Amino acid sequence: MRLAHWAVNAPLRPLLLAVFTASFVLPAQAADLITITRDALDNNAELASARSEYLGVEAGRDVVRSGLLPQINASGTVAHNEQYESQGSSRAGVGAGTGSVSAGDDRYNTVSLSLEATQALYDEVTRRQVTQAERQIDQQVYLLAATEQQLLIDVASAYFDILRAHEVLEARFAQERAIGRQLEQAGEQFEVGLIAITEVEEARATFDQSRADRIAAESNLQVAFEALEQLTGQRYASIEALGDSMPIALPEPSSRDYWVEQAIERNPQVLAQQAGIEVSRSGVDIARAGRLPTLSAFGNYQYGDSDIDNTTGNDSSSQVGIRANLPIYTGGSTSASIRQGTYQLESSQYDFESQRRSSIQQVRSLYTQVSNDVETVEAREQAIVSNQSALEATRAGYEVGTRNIVDVLNAEQNLYNAIANYAEARYNYVVNLLSLRQQAGRLDVDAIEEVNAWLTGDEVNFTLPESGGDDPYEPALNIGAPPQPGM
């Protein structure tokens, strides 16, 4: 239910419309929730990072798996060689000694080539590393889904935070104007001696507070708008408003146990932690496989050529066989790796249990909150009616002298607070309902489209009047006749 349906004077509506009209030409159609959601899915940096991380993990599996495929390596050298030789002899005699030395050098070139191919026949470590990589891909799929669902709830929350801030700002605008007129009326009555100066000061204090509330509401609207831009990387001139006919009902099915079961079975964070257990278990298997032998087939070819001693010629050889390796003692690293992997497995099991409990608690809390929101929205709506009636009665009492201006001001504030609280309650219901779906693993684009159908197509624009100069919200003199009951 919009503010226009509650306690807005007819002469005031054009003024509010002018305040919220953009100073630039608006697009033909305001952006709706599903359009902004798709923009976020295409442009959000955090989601793009998660997608790249998934692709990186997927590529890591191919890196590990390459160890089980044929390996072919070739190497070769071309070298210029120089050899230096030195020889000497000596004879010793009484009082005499002679010696002779000869030296020479040799220069030649050599060429060698080597080609080797290997194929793993039995390598349990690498095989289990491939299994672990597959488990990591499974885990990354769930983490990517969790990131996407978090983005959906973030976009929806930011979208409805804007609408919430907009409706609260509308209420604060109307409150400031209403109290401003009350202040002007009090000033006129004081000038002719009908009321004391204390009532004027009471009205001014209340007006100052309403002005502060309006400024805070403006800030909240702008902050909410910036949050949406951060998620999508785009700026929107306006978005569609939420309709008054939005259904306020309990989640379907209306069973808390059902939503708890959905969270256990479908929550991507829970499933990611569960997949993490399998990743850690594969790590233990890899460590244990370190004690097993490896077996591979190989074949190589060697070729050499040299022009030493000014002769030409070459030699070559080839070899085909099977190579086996059995680790007998590795300094205790294998046993330590097994212990390390076992502790990591225990840690991942505890992480899974913690996430499972957290998801169950959040689903229960959100289901309770949504159920309470249904009643709260109804109560807040009725509070507007009650406060409207109370304001009219207080104004009537003020006209005949049975109520003072403080009573009127309090009634004014109560009414507009009730309007703001009603807006809060409606948007809390929508966001909590979507959060419940997220925790149950059931938040997707289809769910966003269902909520998008509740929008009206009415534009909500975020351009506020420029600051500076005289305050445009300061009550003007000679506004007109004081408000009558029921206006």
From TrEMBL:
The keyword Secreted does not apply. SUPFAM superfamilies: Outer membrane efflux proteins (OEP). Keywords: Cell outer membrane, Membrane, Signal, Transmembrane, Transmembrane beta strand, Transport. Its main location: membrane. It is found in: Cell outer membrane. PANTHER family: OUTER MEMBRANE PROTEIN TOLC. This is TolC family outer membrane protein. It comes from Vreelandella neptunia.
